[in-house]
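Feature request disguised as a bug report, sorry. It would help if multi-protein outputs had a clear separator. Right now it looks like this:
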Amino acid sequence: MMLGNSMIQVCQLPTSIMFNDFNYAQIDQQLTMWIAGLLWTAFFAVVVSASPEDPELSSTRVVFQTSYGDIEFGFYPSVAPQTVDHIFKLVRLGCYNTNHFFRVDKGFVAQVADVVGGRSAPMNKEQRKEAEKTVIAEFSNVKHVRGILSMGRYSDPNSASSSFSMLLGDAPHLDGQYTIFGKVTKGDDTLKKLEQLPTRREGIFVMPTERITILSAYYYDAQMETCEEERSHLKRRLSASAIEIERQRMKCFP
């Protein structure tokens, strides 16, 4: 545990500081350096804890249902607000239903196709209007690590539309070049299943030999869901308490 040892070394008074040593100037200087070390360590800890690499997820959750299992993800509205608004609107309109993962490169990315050409079902006018929009680049300091959602695009940084990748490993070479807008919150086991499927290579893309369809997509509010669970649990507890009270009443006052 390097951090633990380094903290111990910083906090340990220098052995040259002895109470029977009357070189007060030397003691003063060494104490000043010791205190400065403590302050620097504390400052560094605060900076690390407030790192922009760990942004806060909103309470909205989206679930992609596939034949291999569900994949749930959340959004980073503070990191990429316009991208989040766009993707969430596509979800609400049902644009990702019948779409598919056209790319599965083990240890790299599982990429969702652009909904305009990726869906097997036709699109209505409202869906197509939103799907054909592009969003401006919203690059950030958030790192490309497993589970991160990152927008696909062409050479133009502002060409992102509806295709995005779910990272299957760390990809530092993508940092600062593609818009990160969320991360997978549940379903890593599903992603692992996708990584085991047979693939073929087409140019730079590693693609599954079978179609991995997003059967449907839905969304919910995780915060509200928690409240409902707590309310339901409380109701059960109150009901059980009422039954126990009545049982004791009948026992003591027949």
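(second protein starts here, but nothing in the output says so)
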Amino acid sequence: MPFLFFSSIRQSNIPVKIRQHLPSFTFAILSPLSSSSSSFHSSTVNVISEFLLNECGFFPSQLTKVFQRRPSLRRIRTDQNAREVIHFLRDSGLTEIQLHKTIVRNPSILQLKVNGQLKLKIEFMKTLGFTTKELAYLVSMLPRILNSSLENALRPKICHLKNLFGSNVNLCKALTAAPELLGSDIEKQLKPKVEYVESIMGILQGSTTFVYALRQIVSQGFENVANKMKHMANLGLSEEEVHQIVNKHPQVLGLSTKKMQENIHFLIHSAGLTRRTLVLNPLLLSLGIEKRLKPHHEVFKSLCSKPNSKRPLSLVGMFRLTEKNFLKKFGQYNTQRQSH
């Protein structure tokens, strides 16, 4: 009976479109009969949950994670500070999706003071040259930077990274491409990986691909990257060709070994491209076979089979066309091919 009474009060204050989600949410978060009942305070959860649900558009599943990661939110008796934080983050440029990600990943932000903690860090980051869009992305991907001490943690880390990358411009590019770099230990994690990218992979700082190569090392580790480069060599490419591909398009290291194998096999054995062509156009290794390479190849073969036909593009040029541009230029041929 106590639960039924409590549940009716909760649902009476929540819109119908939200109420349909309540069964699992109620048992997971609101029910005093749940496993966390000993630390549960109905007025606390009601204040925060209703604010995030009704005014911020959070889903019940997101709230479950919020309260699991920050149980102390249940003891807050007013949503005033949370409102100020949400308002500040929106003013700082975060989209609603980014806002949700930020709070779910680090719900303790709702308990920080805007003027004393958040504002100073955001203003400091802006002085480095981040655009509003870049900064919003960085915060949503690595929200724990807002919890770190400005003077004892964030500013010294930024100073070290700036020395590492050489300028604010390079620093902003690096952190925008790989936000996780800001969470890495400079001496133990980042410096050895920078040295690996420069000495082993042969990609120097300042080049357009350096940050992307570094990101692969940071996210995958030395061993996985080395294994993928060996795997590419085992597929018929020389070590020199592998290094040239990685230098030109290090994002290829983010592909699975299965994807590498399938694309290289199709491009060389089915499409008839040379290894040299792959080295010059490594982006082809990242394209989808069924939705991009195969249909574009079929249309190319159809054009080549027509007598006295003049090919408007090379096969590589055909592969590089986006789906929109491909349909615009060759939609009639693709339709004819599919109809047979």
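Even a blank line would do. Unrelated, but nice: Residues 60 and 135 are 28 Å apart (CA to CA).
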